[in-house]
Amino acid sequence: MESCNLRSLRDAWNLDYRMRGALYGGAPLPLPDLLPGALVLDLGCGNGKHLMPMKSRGWTVVGIDSAEEAVRICKEREDLIVGDACSLPFNNCTFDAVIGIHILGHLPEGLRSLLIHEVRRVLREDGAFHCTVFSRKDMRCGKGREVEPFTFSRREIITHYFTEKELSDLKGPFKDLSIARDCHTIRLSGEWYTREQITCTFRR
Questions:
Q1: Which residues pair with 133 in a beta bridge?
Q2: Measured between alpha carbons, how far apart are the two ends of the chain, in Å?
Q3: Is residue 133 a contact partner of residue 167, using CB atoms and an 8 Å limit?
């Protein structure tokens, strides 16, 4: 299997955004219940699909993404940063919550634990990391070129498909972890397919 180079992954995201524009639209995914006034980090904010829904809840939101093209085309550029999720440019205990929607699965295995530790570092006491990933039951698991076990590359962008045990093993520095599955079917060209996500809440 091939190794995953972070620079090449970032370049792949930038190319995808340049070619396809705002990649992610449609209805936002469900968001956690946080109090108005919470300071929230949108980790891997992409082209900003969830920024307005977050701000509409009265949260103060900072977005960060490694792809400059994603930040450039985002309509809500205020408080957006180009940066590395595994080396966050924030002080310890800065945020009440961190929300990472489909970012953990776009990292190679060796960096997922590093991201988890960085997120804990920037969370305040009793803060939480709300994280969404794809499960191995998802229709796209197995599609593309396998670069690590259950990690597949399409257009040079990698996606890992998780088990609950893998996520439990990442709990590491957090004191608590809750896991929920969201499974539904979609119809494409007359055939039914399964989409399944796992939502985790790591509590500091």
A1: 198
A2: 35
A3: yes
The structure's pTM equals 0.90
pLDDT at 1 over 60: no
CATH superfamily of 6-21+35-203: Vaccinia Virus protein VP39 (3.40.50.150)
Q: What H or E segment, with its residue span, contains residue 134? A: strand 123-135
- Residue-wise pLDDT for 161-195, tens only, equals 999 999 999 998 899 999 999 998 989 888 899 99
Least confident stretch, 17-26, 92-101, 153-162: 17-26
Please say whether the beta carbons of 95 and 128 come within 8 A: no
CB 136 within 8 A of CB 163: yes
Listed by start position, the domains of the chain span: 6-21+35-203
